[in-house]
Here is the input.
Amino acid sequence: MKNYEIRDGKMTLDGKPVQLKFGDLDQIKVLRKFEKLSRELKEQGVDLEPTAKTIEFHFNCLCGVQRSVDVDADFGYEKHKCLHCEREYYIESDNYDNYKLYLIEK
Ligand SMILES: [Zn+2]
Here is the structure.
């Protein structure tokens, strides 16, 4: 996965401006995040353009299977299920691009 970012209304890849390419799944992913964030800010009455980016996070499940997930830095946390043993995790992020992994107790 590529590290796209939308900041100040422009899409960048690894910090460099890029052209929008029709059908690029990574670009579509970050555009969707951008739209969702824009909508949420509007609903909260905040007049601000959001920054959206794709971030990949790797971790090893307790069963030993490695997982690679797309983390949405702007949403706090999401649940991620190991497809092998069905343990569930969530990844929490602060606003400084630091991530912590938690196992969800059943
Ligand atoms: Zn597992």
